[in-house]
Known about the structure:
By secondary structure, the chain is α/β, with parallel strands linked by helices.
Amino acid sequence: xxxxxxxxxxxxxxxxxxxxxxxxDVEHFxxxxxxxxxxxxxxxxxxxxxxxxxxxxxxLHITRNVVILQKYGLSKTVDYLRTRYNQxxxxxxxxxxxxxxxxxxxxxxxxxxxxxxxSIRNELRKILSKIRQIENLNTIxxxxxxxxxxxxxxxxxxxxx
Length: 161
């Protein structure tokens, strides 16, 4: 039987925990997340909207190659990415504005010759359907790590983080 947990998310206006009716498959989440970690460890950029998004990713063991759109704006971020990366994953929020940014970034980066992996974003959107903001992964990280500890496979064995 698969390990299934209920997601706890943050309400937008306050730091009040709310229960959603959506459960996620923890094993599926970690498989997606490990792919993302592998991509960043191999030089891919992960593009997020703001600093809180970066903090959430750090809590889930993504500490390299995180590029914050809010820091430089769209055009300077694209210039920065063009000079340093060949691959990217876009992890803007799953709300209307985040989807708009993701679509625009995908089009611009593709024209600039940067390969954009859309599969991770699409899979996360599906399994985290009640979570609209990447920064809310911060809260989920605590809950997931508590219920299903994070392991890294080094080629021969698993190590718990």
